[in-house]
Each structure stands twice: as C-alpha cells, then as structure tokens.
Amino acid sequence: MGIEGALAFIKLVKTHIDSQVFIEQFVVAGEKICVIGRTKGVVLTNQKHFDCRLVHIWSVSNGKINGLDVFIEDAVMLSALCRNE
C-alpha cells in the first residue's frame, strides 16, 4: 500500500464519514505499540452516529514505522453505514 495508498484510503474514508479517534491506552511490547481507544462520528450519507471500539497495532523497527494493523468494532460500523436501518 505504501504512503500513497494510505493517503488515498484516508481521503476515501473522509468522503463517507466524519469521525474522531479518542485514545484510551497505549501498550508497548518490544517493536509493537498497541493503541486502544474509540472512534466516534457520523456517516455523511445518512447522518447515523457511531461509537466504535478500536485497536491499532503499530510495528516499529529502527525508530521507523513499518506496519499498521487496524481493528474496529465492525458490527457497529456496518450498522451505521447501512442506509436501510
């Protein structure tokens, strides 16, 4: 994906939702940093609000980020994105 792919993904997401991330906890384990928190916002197409738990796992080596795994409470987000509910 690279930087360009990540920026394109973020831009695409921002056309569908308006959200903020709230960090609750950091856990550092060697070359992994686990960020635990919530993302809260609104889906722009249907004005549905959401509040999802999230976990980001950053991989770091030699002082540089070389990976990111993102996990969200997908049932909550999918429900908010659904136009027919």
Across the major sheet, the strand order is 1-2-3-4
So how many helices? 2
CATH topology: Nuclear Transport Factor 2, Chain: A
Q: Could you tell me the strand content as a percent range? A: over 45%
Residues in helices, as a percent range: 10-25%
Number of strands: 4
Shape: globular
Name the helix and strand elements from N-terminus to C-terminus, one letter apiece.
HEEEEH
* CATH class assignment: Alpha Beta
Main sheet specs: 4 strands, antiparallel
Strand pairing plus helix content: what structural class?
A: alpha+beta
Quaternary form: single chain
Describe the fold and architecture.
The protein is α+β, with helices and mostly antiparallel strands. It has one domain: Roll (Nuclear Transport Factor 2, Chain: A), CATH 3.10.450. Helices cover 25% and strands 55% of the residues. It has helices at 2-14, 74-81; strands at 17-29, 32-43, 49-61, 64-72. Strands 1-2-3-4 form a 4-stranded antiparallel β-sheet. It is globular. The termini are far apart. The relative contact order is 0.17. The model has no long low-confidence stretch (mean pLDDT 88).
Secondary-structure topology with pairs:
Layout lengths: L1 H13 L2 E13 L2 E12 L5 E13 L2 E9 L1 H8 L4
Antiparallel strand pairs: 1-2, 2-3, 3-4
Highlighted features:
globular; 85 residues; Nuclear Transport Factor 2, Chain: A; 55% strand
How would you concisely characterize the structure shown here?
The protein has about 80 residues and is an alpha+beta fold. Helices cover about 25% and strands about 55% of the residues.
